[in-house]
Specification:
By secondary structure, the chain is of the alpha/beta class. It has three domains: 265 residues, no CATH class; 89 residues, no CATH class; 101 residues, 3-Layer(aba) Sandwich (D-Maltodextrin-Binding Protein, domain 2). The protein has 22 helices and seven strands. The protein has a five-stranded mixed β-sheet, sandwiched between helices. Strand 6 and strand 7 form a beta hairpin.
Length: 563
């Protein structure tokens, strides 16, 4: 590892890792329902209409997130593609770049807190985590949000460590017996403070109050531990708050004016409060749900996460660990308490966890050699084995049948899973952490570039769009019983959602158009078509699973039979 720690080599190594993990599948993976498809369709409509203030999905206001992520996607599409194109990768590129930036920033500020070697391993753990890799492949807010969180929290951590170290060195007393390192004495300045507040303002434009809330929770936790926030004054909070507000406020004022205040009202009443008060859209879970998922969403880094967790609290006397714990614990607890639960909600805590786990791995603590830890290393391999089995089985169940090329890919995943587990069992946790990069590289490109895009029975909208593109629809497409937003993106903004009888009426009004009808709506469609005297022709059928609903679905592409 020593050959990777000098000069710009860590940045190059982490960049190559991110390239290997995030680029495969970026173009091949079809639009995902439902959140991503709503995002990219709303971005397309921004470009089509030239209205970059209001956020619309077809004719409905989309009051879920501010405009920041949409603007980034729109800039990417404008530079690299065209709104009429169904290529999804330009919409996803900002997420992939943001994930890459989050990894590099984690290394950059982690090096100032803990040293180069732990920071490099932390970059590997974060870059290779399943959750971040999944978000890098989707045109949503969460990877971009993570970049804002890391920028803000990294600066906050440096100001805390530097401020506490100066007070300790000056005999001022900081309310903590935390030891001081040489790296801690490198004081950040005005530029770093500006970065903190810029990240706050941009973060508000990306996902509302999340970045400020995480920073406030961190500061509150540190105040509770130290009874001292004098170090925070160096961040110039009054001037900085003005900067953050100046970045975020203009769009909120503009969208409030354009919608008569409806956007902000709907965002609070229709999105934020339901998530805080109940399980929105059936995404509920109990406190502790994220802890149960951690082995999977932090995989493959979860190999070392669970042994390390048992020792993290004991490291709170160290300044770097103190601020990282103040970042990770309140953030994690907050999302455990909120009733609405989605796996990516705890992603903002991952950089802090990665840094602490990497630091303990480099120190080779006894905790990694306990019997319980070694038992966990064996159990952990089951996750990799499950992924390897899925690589072979999923194409059989949801694709075009057995694919012989998946067998060597599955074997590679198994071997790449066994290697870090074996190194951990040999009491070499730091080397095991580095080997996890190989585990990720052996797994994710196969999954995102090869396996997932081949699952035709999962991506019903893609199958329907291919039929429609082959036949051609002279008029807007109508869909009965199937209303996934990916269909709108792939078929057209003017796609209409109706019931079975409405689909027949649509063909009566647009005889050269096509309709998509589910098997459940087909009887009503046929009955109404008969009443209207329509002679119907089926141009194709797509069978599979509507994964948004978890139900088998059969879609028929129908039109009026030509004489």
């Amino acid at each position: 590892m020593h050959g990777l720690t000098g000069g710009i080599r860590p940045y190059l190594a982490l960049s190559l890792l991110c390239l290997a993990l995030y680029l495969p599948g970026l173009a091949a993976l079809p639009p995902m329902d439902r959140d991503e498809s709503r995002f990219i369709q709303a971005t397309r409509q921004m470009l089509e209409s030239g209205d970059f203030i209001r956020i619309q999905f077809q004719d409905e206001m989309r009051a879920k997130k501010p405009a920041g992520a949409y603007w980034l996607q729109a800039a990417s599409v404008e530079a690299l593609s065209h709104p009429a194109s169904n290529q999804v990768w330009p919409y996803r590129l900002p997420s992939a770049l943001a994930a890459w930036a989050a990894v590099l920033m984690t290394f950059a500020f982690g090096r100032s807190l803990l040293g180069t070697r732990p920071a490099l391993l932390a970059g590997v753990l974060l870059a290779s985590s399943l959750m971040l890799t999944a978000e890098a492949h989707q045109a949503k807010t969460d990877a971009i949000l993570l970049a804002c969180v890391v920028a803000a929290q990294g600066v906050l951590a440096r100001f805390y460590v530097s401020g506490q170290a100066r007070e300790k060195a000056g005999g001022g007393g900081c309310g903590s017996s935390a030891p001081v390192t040489g790296a801690s004495l490198m004081a950040p300045g005005t530029l770093e403070a500006a970065i903190f507040w810029l990240a706050q303002g941009i973060g508000i434009l990306i996902k509302g109050p999340i970045v400020p809330l995480i920073s406030l929770l961190t500061v509150a936790a540190l105040w509770g531990a130290d009874r001292n926030v004098r170090w925070f004054v160096s961040l110039r909070p009054l001037l900085g708050s003005v900067i953050a507000i100046a970045i975020a406020a203009p769009w909120f004022v503009a969208v409030s004016s354009a919608t008569g205040g409806a956007f902000v009202g709907e965002a609070v009443k229709g999105d934020l409060l339901p998530k805080l008060l109940g399980a929105q859209e059936s995404h509920g879970g109990f406190p502790g749900w994220y802890l149960m998922l951690a082995a999977g969403i932090f995989w493959p880094g979860s190999l070392l996460l669970w042994p390390a967790v048992t020792k993290l609290w004991g490291q709170r006397g160290r300044l770097a660990f103190r601020v990282l714990l103040a970042w990770a614990i309140p953030t994690w607890v907050l999302f455990e308490i909120i009733p609405t639960k989605l796996p990516h909600y705890v992603l903002p805590a991952f950089p802090a966890l990665a840094l602490m786990v990497a630091a303990l791995a480099c120190e080779g603590l006894e905790v990694f050699r306990h019997r319980a830890a070694k038992a966990w290393y064996v159990v952990w391999t089951l996750i990799g084995f499950t992924l390897a089995a899925a690589v072979v089985v999923l194409p059989i169940k949801l694709g075009n049948g057995f694919d012989a090329s998946t067998v060597p890919a599955a074997i590679a995943i198994v071997l790449a899973t066994l290697l870090p587990a074996a190194l951990a069992l040999m009491n070499r946790p730091a080397t095991a952490a580095l080997a996890l990069a190989l585990t990720a590289v052996a797994t994710y490109p196969v999954v995102f570039q090869g396996v997932l895009p081949s699952l035709d029975r999962m991506f019903l909208s893609r199958g329907v769009a291919r039929i429609i593109q082959t036949i051609g629809s002279d008029g807007p497409v109508a869909a009965a019983g199937y209303s996934e937003p990916s269909l709108v993106f792939l078929v057209g903004t003017d796609t209409r959602f109706v019931n079975g009888a409405g689909a027949a009426g649509h063909l009566a009004a647009h005889p050269r158009a096509l309709v998509v009808v589910t098997d459940r709506e087909l009887p009503a469609f046929s009955q109404e078509a008969t009443k209207l005297g329509l002679s119907i022709e089926q141009f194709g059928q797509v069978d599979g699973i509507n994964y948004s609903r978890g139900k088998p679905t059969s879609l028929a592409v129908l039109g009026v039979k030509t004489p």
